[in-house]
Amino acid sequence: MAHDPHHEHLTEELAKQLEPVLSKSPQAIYLYLDDEHKICNKKFADMLGYDSVEAWVENETPLDDVLESDQEGVINAYMNASREFKASSFSASLVRKNKKQIDVSILMMPITYKEEVFVIHFISEK
Known about the structure:
Structural class: alpha+beta
Largest sheet: 5 strands, antiparallel
CATH class: Alpha Beta
Oligomer: single chain
Number of domains: 1
Low-confidence stretches: none
CATH superfamily: PAS domain
């Protein structure tokens, strides 16, 4: 994917506005525009075994963090949020960096910001 400084700037701006939610929520959270333009809170990075938020952000294939059998469901929920503006709640399994599988509940909701549609994910370990 081509680097887009505008999208990078929007992601940073929105993350700054959402900082109280990202830092104070007891849930793991990530905000996603596309594979290159995303941010998560430390709780999410830790949940998946990344050394830092930046390490997760640098991951070019974040779908690899989802159990292969659950990837289609996650993609469909994302498409519903980003195209149909439909929030959803569902269960899935994530895969930590150490390959250990964790079962989670995910709440996925669309957020518009400066004419772009981001999707925010709230994740709770079961």
